[in-house]
Amino acid sequence: MNVVSYHPGPDELSYTFGGRAPVGRVRPGTILELFTEDCFGGRVTSVSDLPSQVCEFPYLNPVTGPFHVEGAEPGDTLALHFVSIAPARDHAWSSTFPLFGALTGTHTTATLQPPLEERVWRYDLDLSRRTALFQARNSDYTVELPLDPMHGTVGVAPAANEARMTITPDAHGGNMDTTELRAGVTVYLGVNVEGGLFAIGDGHARQGEGEVCGTALECAMNTVVAVELIKGVATPWPRMEDDTHLMSTGSARPLEDAYRISQHDLVTWTASLTGLDLLDAYQLVSQAGRAPVGNVCDTNYTMVAKIPKACLDGPEVYESAHARLRELADAYRA
Amino acid sequence: MNVVSYHPGPDELSYTFGGRAPVGRVRPGTILELFTEDCFGGRVTSVSDLPSQVCEFPYLNPVTGPFHVEGAEPGDTLALHFVSIAPARDHAWSSTFPLFGALTGTHTTATLQPPLEERVWRYDLDLSRRTALFQARNSDYTVELPLDPMHGTVGVAPAANEARMTITPDAHGGNMDTTELRAGVTVYLGVNVEGGLFAIGDGHARQGEGEVCGTALECAMNTVVAVELIKGVATPWPRMEDDTHLMSTGSARPLEDAYRISQHDLVTWTASLTGLDLLDAYQLVSQAGRAPVGNVCDTNYTMVAKIPKACLDGPEVYESAHARLRELADAYRA
Amino acid sequence: MNVVSYHPGPDELSYTFGGRAPVGRVRPGTILELFTEDCFGGRVTSVSDLPSQVCEFPYLNPVTGPFHVEGAEPGDTLALHFVSIAPARDHAWSSTFPLFGALTGTHTTATLQPPLEERVWRYDLDLSRRTALFQARNSDYTVELPLDPMHGTVGVAPAANEARMTITPDAHGGNMDTTELRAGVTVYLGVNVEGGLFAIGDGHARQGEGEVCGTALECAMNTVVAVELIKGVATPWPRMEDDTHLMSTGSARPLEDAYRISQHDLVTWTASLTGLDLLDAYQLVSQAGRAPVGNVCDTNYTMVAKIPKACLDGPEVYESAHARLRELADAYRA
Amino acid sequence: MNVVSYHPGPDELSYTFGGRAPVGRVRPGTILELFTEDCFGGRVTSVSDLPSQVCEFPYLNPVTGPFHVEGAEPGDTLALHFVSIAPARDHAWSSTFPLFGALTGTHTTATLQPPLEERVWRYDLDLSRRTALFQARNSDYTVELPLDPMHGTVGVAPAANEARMTITPDAHGGNMDTTELRAGVTVYLGVNVEGGLFAIGDGHARQGEGEVCGTALECAMNTVVAVELIKGVATPWPRMEDDTHLMSTGSARPLEDAYRISQHDLVTWTASLTGLDLLDAYQLVSQAGRAPVGNVCDTNYTMVAKIPKACLDGPEVYESAHARLRELADAYRA
User: Fold this and answer.
1) 3-state secondary structure chain D
2) What's C280's domain CATH number?
3) Which of A16, A30, B301, C117 is the most buried (most CB within 10 A)?
4) 3-class DSSP state of C165
């Protein structure tokens, strides 16, 4: 088994997808043990560290990578199986941020009202009990929430020679901020440039759907990823697979377009897997599908479209990459 | 116990919220046994009955009601507890409809492309096994889906002397098409006119999130509703409560505004229930909340914002109407 | 010549399209001399009269009417030619309004920020010099702006037994707030109910495009309208015609859908007038058309699509209603 | 006078803003004589050359540049005065393009309908009479339209180390496709990287507002630009100035956000130029402003906000760069 560990120093972090040389090369079949810094670059260390003061634009939402996957060429698909996602610290941070979030005017939904107060919350994480403690800032209210670690950001170098801030989700992946991206999930990303150049970041100890205030329980992570390459199979938008479901994603504005992209991809994917014609597949997804909200706060919004594999008669997708990566993960853990 | 049964004839159905005299008067505390017709008015009886031919605009999406609740005045809230929602037939119908649905140009998202094919699907329902059978029209593909009966449409007469087609969801309720509106749920609706004038319709044997093709498993229903009135408590947008969660809704376009309305209402409601200040409540909802998509096909889109009551320290809401209605429902079933 | 004058008392004003008995009946060919109150119902009489205090929801944006046009039936079109629009007072009022306007959070674009300050501006009108004087509230800055009187609101009773607040523009017309609706323009409105039931209000001494703060130079008006009826010709969305241009409108959210509706209508109208096929008409409108913004602040946004008649080879539209109404207006003025 | 001419070869064209080395360096005060290729890269040479066949993604919408302006640093502003924009050929091309345009489903407004027909139109240009001839493809309908040459695309390297396809308008400029960008206009662009790295392309012999079908009268251009640099003055979004008006732009989705950005910028700019407080400036722009639509077809939509300088009491902006560049242009022409 080929296991590679990588813990980037502060200067090795990336802030764009595209436009950056790889930090390493991996062969398909590799297990990667990665450290990812939190979205604040680790600079928020107390509730008085306001992100707008301790962080410096555009050095936000760092990702670990990019990694060049040997043999990956445009038209292929990378499969990244998340073996485990473990908080690297015993606490996480969340905050409001001026003119960012769903319930505030922003730089694009521009209003003349003053920004909301910038405020930071500390969450103590109990990794054995799998809980995070919400502590109000202006009262003594506390409540325990279940841990549900995930990565907000995963992606590859975009097409068309673009370089995009890691904060932006689009067809190349990026900051989708979907709670579906948990351990046990395989993410499929279409390759746009030689080597694919994937990177991962923005760990969340947990997140509500939509990430309404703009941040989650932001946390550095120790994450293990198993890497595969499916040659000659293209993927138009990021997809996901777990043991029970297939998922498509879409990232756009307005939010209904994110919904449309994800549902359209799931309908056409369903048709190709089942032999249903387009309208029959549309009907099946309409009745059997779910639509978990990713983010409604980033520069593009993200929706997921999700269908039980049981509805598709046990489809084989991506040359059974998910099953093979599950086995590899089991072997790694053993 | 005051139990009232009502099975409307075809001429007694309503097609608007507002602008219509009540079909009956009920006292708070009443159990209502209702029959609701399907969204096609029962006119689709085979897969060759195309809705655009057998139905006549605007006689679509009929509702049963409106009912005048004695004592209800503007500024009060109606609580409608859905005791049971049972398919009234052994089959349901679904269809595409020209220029309606999320993955087609529509009358507002106007395009020059010809409409998608109009096609009807029949679902056989197995009420004992709680399944519905999807049967493709252009192949022999079939798959069983779980029943999950719900009502797409519930609402009251709107404010400001408006009358709105039942197809439109807004602050008065209407065609929200959320899968969360199941048996066991209490819906709270702000009263805008004397008597409130609530009505219910658009039963679905099941529905995917977003109702992407524009229709669900459309089915007449035998539905039992327990009615309560909370005096002097206003409700800005429809809310829901079940045994474990509180829910706010928002209906608007674009979809992010439906999300904003629902999350805004849940944040301010959370603040009022917990004593948290607005930003602390924003933070808590951001991390603990969910955002189930209602519809992304109707004239307004609908989102639900949802938080576990456990996160709110067992709040008392609406004078414990849900608990009381649960008891009433239990007594009724006994 | 049949000339009818109507000056409604405060109790005769209407606040919805639909759901209201007519205030009068007119025959096609009638000249109507109308008084319309301003959007504040005349209650703002000094800069210290804050609209949210002196006005009472839903008694905002009153219209004069509705008028029953004899012989009008569903499927016909009303033609309303605006002969003249004259400010009825020597001053106009404008204001911000809490949670209303394009550069503020609103009830639907819900944010947690406090509303903007509510502030009232008085404009002195010089009717001989055709100017209005902007006077800043917090400095001594003044500037003269040209008068350009228009009506924000014109419409008929909606289809489908709906009644809509006058503030909302939709397929029936309503509060479109387009600066194109000046004297010299003929407005075409599709008839949905017997008599059509048109009404007019919301005079503006002038308005910027989009009405960004939510109000214009709000002013009572003495307005003269010439009324015609085109039998058997339907109109899907309000259209306008002046001596040089044809115009279509669309009202929806998001704003691109208002654009799509208006452009789609102008393309299909162009095709029907010129014999161009749909794509050739699409191309011609794409290059020759303009798209004046109506409002970006109301419950639906409005866009206008506009093409020179010269590009359409002198089309005859609506049985030359505009030319005939121009002649009638000339005769009236003579 | 420093005059530089540059006619790029096919291999020297650029397809992104950012991520590309400069093709030349210019000093402030330079007059640049540029050739720009059309958006099809000159590959459409007959109506049977379908763009989707003769062009190759992502080699669409080429720009001439980027140019490094000596001394330009982040926080400065480039002023580009368009001295003249002259069609370089005696004809222009327009077309539909599969899944592109406002009245069709697209890759983001994803629908299941087949794309519209791809069709090409040739326009003969009469440069002396200043007309372009529309010729229908499916009939013998023709009409002359006035020439109104403009550039759809102008911009600088984006902030945050991004590289963006030239087709996308955003805060760095790009494919705004506004008819306001004519000869006689000065464009102000905030500098994000050393040298600014501006580029220009996508000439249109004329364009309708919104560019509804997705393309205009696409034409290679001989364009003369006068370049200035304003040190230490930042510009958040592209602005424009002509002899009579100041203009702000915004590019985003949905279209109302493009409107909000542009109006917000114009309001705050107005406040800074006049000393009006924010609400007084909001009021003045609301009544005196116009909002010409840029594009409603690109990956972001664009709106312009525009106010007469006369309303602002003859403001001095950008150190009178426009007046100085006008003089330079006059000297060049002399």
Assistant:
1) CCEEEECCCHHHCECEECCCCCCEEECCCCEEEEEECCCCCCCCCCCCCCHHHHCCCCCCCCEEEEEEECCCCCCCEEEEEEEEEEECCCEEEEECECCECCCCCCCCCCCCCCCCCCCEEEEEEECCCCEEEEECCCCCCEEEEECCCEEEEEECCCCCCCEEECCCCECCEEECCCCCCECCCEEEEECCCCCEEEEEEEEECCCCCECCCCCCCECCEEEEEEEEEECCCCCCCCEEECCCEEEEEEEECCHHHHHHHHHHHHHHHHHHHHCCCHHHHHHHHHHHCECCECECCCCCEEEEEEEEHHHHCCCCCHHHHHHHHHHHHHHHHC
2) 3.10.28.20
3) B301
4) strand
Query: Could you give the CA distance from residue D334 to residue D327 in angstroms, rounded to a whole number?
Result: 10
pLDDT in tens, C126-159: 999 999 999 999 999 999 999 999 999 999 999 9
Per-window interface: B 279-318 vs A, CB < 8 A: 279-280, 282-291, 293, 296, 301, 303, 310-313
- Please tell me the distance from the alpha carbon of residue B163 to that of residue B19, in angstroms, as a whole number: 5
| All residues at 6 or more sequence positions from B53 whose CB lies less than 8 Å from its CB, including other chains | none
Pick from D165, D108, D21, D154: nearest CA to A18: D165
* Residue from C137, C180, C246, C286 to probe the interface with D (highest D Cβ count within 10 Å): C286
Closest partner residue to C116 (CB to CB) among A103, A113, A115 is: A113
Interface of B with C in 105-164 (CB under 8 A): 107-112, 159-164
- A213: contact with B, CB 8 A cutoff: yes
Residue with tokens 């046994």: B33
Name the E strands within chain A: 3-6, 16-17, 24-26, 31-36, 63-69, 77-87, 91-95, 120-126, 131-135, 142-146, 150-155, 164-165, 173-175, 186-190, 196-204, 221-230, 239-241, 245-252, 301-308
- Total domains in chain B come to 1
Instruction: Tokens for B215, please give them.
Output: 């229709």
Contact B161/C57, CB-based, under 8 Å?
Answer: no
Per-residue pLDDT of chain C (334 residues; tens, 9 = 90+): 899 999 999 999 999 999 999 999 999 999 999 999 999 999 999 999 999 999 999 999 999 999 999 999 999 999 999 999 999 999 999 999 999 999 999 999 999 999 999 999 999 999 999 999 999 999 999 999 999 999 999 999 999 999 999 999 999 999 999 999 999 999 999 999 999 999 999 999 999 999 999 999 999 999 999 999 999 999 999 999 999 999 999 999 999 999 999 999 999 999 999 999 999 999 999 999 999 999 999 999 999 999 999 999 888 999 999 999 999 999 999 9
Q: Is D257 within the bounds of a domain?
A: yes
- Decide if B285 is inside a domain: yes
In a domain, D92, yes or no: no
> Which tokens hold the place of B84?
């049971």
Residue A314 predicted with pLDDT over 90: no
C264 reaches D (C-beta below 8 A): yes
Cβ contact C110:C80 at 8 Å: no
Among D136, D280, D293, the residue with its CB nearest the CB of C136 is D280
DSSP H stretches of helix in chain C: 51-54, 255-274, 278-288, 321-333
Q: Please, which residues bridge with residue B187 across strands? A: B80, B240
C281 part of a folded domain: yes
Query: What pLDDT digit, counting tens, does each position of D31-75 carry?
Result: 999 999 999 999 999 999 999 999 999 999 999 999 999 999 999
Domain region containing A262 = 239-316
Contact B74/C at CB under 8 A: no
B104/chain D closest Cα distance in angstroms: 5
